[in-house]
Design brief:
Layout (H helix, E strand, L loop, with lengths): L11 H4 L2 H16 L4 E5 L2 H10 L4 E5 L4 H5 L12 H9 L5 H6 L2 H8 L1 H10 L18 E12 L2 H21 L2 E12 L4 E12 L2 H15 L6 E13 L12 H21 L33
Parallel strand pairs: 1-2
Antiparallel strand pairs: 3-6, 4-5, 4-6
Helix pairs in contact: 7-8, 9-10
Length: 310
């Protein structure tokens, strides 16, 4: 079964404490569905997750502020939430093998080793997670929208790269409109024929949902940063740092606002034609030739925050 978090703090008067509620859930699921569940009960989400993994397949583990060190600190550091294999290897290379060792390590050392994630893991190991359990109807805001594609053959020049970037940006603009968002930043990921990845990003002069403006900035990034040490195999363009379309934008002092407004009116007209007559009803002529693409392929990239349902 999938994992979930429940905040039962305000339910004690009706249903008993956390352990009683967990036992009720466990028995009910087993009797009504014939399934076993393991449940962790604790004072924060991270330790509740750890508790659910300690006893399987049918048990309740209670971890309190008075006993979490005895129960959790001897566990491998890799058991801690958000401590993946690569992070665990870095920690173990420094002699940090257990959650307890992580908890006692100097925060400055962890920051130097892992950046912000090091401080976060230190807080988790010491029981300091205070993030709330969000409501079950909470919808995480979209943080970025991007399209990526692997070409059927290598791209060997800037012109071929431009065609693919422009192709990808068409749907990015459409998705931004559908979600009524503007992108303030453009991110470009390039994978070469040796499957080595490089990622570049830059702010847009004016927050935009225009496919052409997004594509132009992505192409500028590519031409400025990519050194053509190898042919290009795959590209991903992404609009990030999204803001609501209704939010007022302050253009830069030297930006051509009139040109931006003219482009927006043109994009509005193109979008309306596509809405009425189909996605390919109007399209840049440069995209009518061989793009080295395996057909139409697009996907939304939606990055939720760290949220859990109650």
């Amino acid at each position: 079964m999938d994992e979930c978090w429940l905040d039962v703090t305000k339910s004690a008067a009706l249903y008993g404490d956390g352990e009683e509620i967990a036992e009720t859930i466990r028995h009910t699921v087993r009797e009504e569905l014939g399934l076993t569940v393991s449940i962790g009960v604790s004072f924060n989400k991270v330790f509740a997750k750890l508790g659910s993994d300690i006893k399987k397949p049918d048990a309740v583990t209670v971890i309190g502020k008075e006993n979490f060190r005895e129960i959790l600190w001897p566990l491998p550091v890799s058991d801690l939430l958000f401590c993946g294999p690569a992070t665990a290897r870095k920690l173990m290379h420094r002699g940090i093998y257990t959650i307890g060792a992580l908890a006692l390590a100097a925060p400055e050392l962890l920051f130097d080793l892992l950046g912000k994630n090091g401080r976060t893991l230190s807080v988790f190991a010491n029981g300091g997670d205070t993030s709330p359990v969000l409501h079950k109807d909470f919808c995480s805001p979209i943080q970025s929208i991007g399209h990526g594609i692997t070409c059927v053959s290598d791209l060997t020049g800037n012109e071929e790269v431009w065609k693919v970037i422009l192709h990808l940006s068409q749907d990015i603009g459409h998705r931004l409109r559908a979600h009524e968002m503007y992108a303030r930043n453009v991110q470009l990921t390039v994978k070469d024929r040796d499957l080595f990845r490089r990622q570049y990003q830059a702010p847009l002069a004016i927050a935009s949902q225009s496919p052409l403006e997004i594509a132009r900035e992505a192409q500028r990034l590519f031409e400025r940063r990519y050194e053509w040490h190898s042919h290009v195999r795959a590209l991903t363009v992404r609009g990030t740092q999204l803001v609501p379309a209704s939010q007022p934008a302050q253009p830069g002092l030297f930006e051509d606002q009139e040109r931006h407004d003219k482009q927006k009116r043109l994009d509005d007209a193109v979008e309306e034609i596509r809405r009425r007559f189909g996605k390919r009803a109007i399209y840049p002529a440069v995209l009518s030739g061989d793009l080295k693409l395996p057909g139409i392929s697009a996907h939304d990239l939606i990055l939720p925050g760290s949220t859990f349902n109650r």
